[in-house]
Write a structure and sequence with these properties.
The chain is an alpha+beta fold. It has three domains: 166 residues, no CATH class; 43 residues, no CATH class; 66 residues, Type 1 dockerin domain (Orthogonal Bundle), CATH 1.10.1330.10. Helices cover 26% and strands 29% of the residues. The chain contains ten helices and 14 strands. Strands 2, 3, 4, 5, 6, 7, 8 and 14 form an eight-stranded mixed beta sheet that branches. Strands 1, 9, 10, 11, 12 and 13 form a six-stranded mixed beta sheet that branches. Strand 4 and strand 5 form a beta hairpin. Helix 8 packs antiparallel against helix 10. The N and C termini lie far apart (47 Å).
Amino acid sequence: MKKAKIIIATSISMVLISSCIPVTSEAFLDEPVYGSVDEIVASYGEGALKLGEWNDGTTFFISEDGSIHAFVRSKAYTELIPAEGCELDNSVINAKLGEYGDAESVNDVVKVNIKYGKDNEAYKALEDIEEIGEIRNSYDVMIYNEGMGYIFAPYMFVSGEIEDADFIAENPELGLTVSQPEAWAVEEGYTHAFELERALSDFYGTGSYTEAYTALKRLSDSGCNYILDFHVSMAYNTKTSDSKIIETIFKRTELPTSQTVSEVKGDANTDGKITISDAVAVLQYIANAEKYPLSEQAKLNADIDGEEGITGGDAISIQKIDAGVF
């Protein structure tokens, strides 16, 4: 994954002649919870294409009208969900985690602080604890404020056995010329470099580059492995949206058979207690029942607002129970 490149705008004239980042409107973030970065990109329209993701959490994508957009995800915490009928013991979890992190309970939710760079080791250790039914990462989603910042991608890097001249001829919309790949791109296997006649960019969300979208969609559909060399100035800032990404890292398929299943009303994740995690389970189920299924007992527990079926009203009622006002 490409490291973040930050460019400092040294003068007003430099900024004015550069294409600026569009404002990624909060309007497309119309759900409180998304399951992944890809779900957010898809929410912008069926034809939206993800163009790249930096290791700092910035995602770039292009919508069908040819406009470039970006948002940032920032990890808030890792949450542990008990297997059905189980309880989590923080002392057991911490003993297993060792140097990779530590667990603590916050408002009846078990959160894990993982040491930097030790994510994979921590996940593996947690998966060995059979009382843990699910490991989730929760991310804040930040969007760009309007400002004098800019974003642009002047180069494309491609991997695979291709002839440069043929690739250029097959993608006339981009106006490509052969260039030299950067060292980081070569290290990741992208040995072919091209400069775009018109860099992918935008100015305050106005204008578009539909020709580029046509070419990029064709390349993606063909299975071509390419990345774009995005650059971003420091002359912009972000704000946290009302949406979150809650991504399931691990989900246990075989649950302890000796455990009984909770039948407590409001206990949507059947862990024997009612917390904000139950409301999240309901919202995830509503957003994508196939990806975030509820067991039959969990559905019975979750349906408490007096309306038939699982609705947002159930999530609200569960939050009220958790707050002691229902």
